[in-house]
Amino acid sequence: MAIIGPGHDDPEYDNCDPAWRHQETPFRQWLFEKLMAASFPDAADMAADWAPANRYHGLDDVETGTLATLTGTSYDEVRAAHKADIAAWMSEQQLRDHPDLAVLDADLNRIAERS
Fold first, then answer.
1. d(Cα 79, Cα 74) in Å, to the nearest integer?
2. How far is 16 from 9, CA to CA, in rounded Å?
3. Cα separation of 41 and 38, whole Å?
4. How far apart, in whole angstroms, are the C-alpha atoms of residue 32 and residue 46?
């Protein structure tokens, strides 16, 4: 039977933005820095894998614990990085949904660096 609408691997199907895989986000930067400090040779790849999950469905207790262990940080530090990332994302969404040119102009460089 043919699929009507987006396919199972189409980003529209699950509301996951494919740009999240490559986008520099506060959480991705935090995670990369912590993994580098913990001497993970594939820190960039690990951060690229975890950062979209953070924005797409958040972090459950197991994921938070895993990241805390891998990065040598506490649950609270992981949750704070997660919350800061979600707050930045929400701010970006508000700018896109209701652009105020003065605010957008002041924030444009930050948004461009993440894209």
1. 9
2. 10
3. 9
4. 8
What pLDDT sits at residue 72?
A: 95
Rounded CA-CA distance 102/78 in Å is 33
Q: What token pair was written down for 98?
A: 């209701």
What sign has the CA pseudo-torsion 87, 92, 98, 103? positive
Q: Which helix (H) or strand (E) holds 62?
A: helix 61-71
Residue 95 and residue 53: Cα distance in Å, rounded?
23
Q: pTM score, two decimals?
A: 0.67
| 44/96 Cα distance (integer angstroms) | 28
How large is the average pLDDT for residues 6-31? 66
Residues 20, 55: contact at Cβ < 8 Å?
yes
**Quick one: which H or E segment has residue 3?**
none
Q: What whole-number distance in Å separates Cα of residue 8 and Cα of residue 23?
A: 22
Q: How far is CA 46 from CA 11, 34, 97, 99, in A?
A: 21, 11, 31, 34
Q: Which residue has the higher pLDDT, 44 or 52?
A: 44
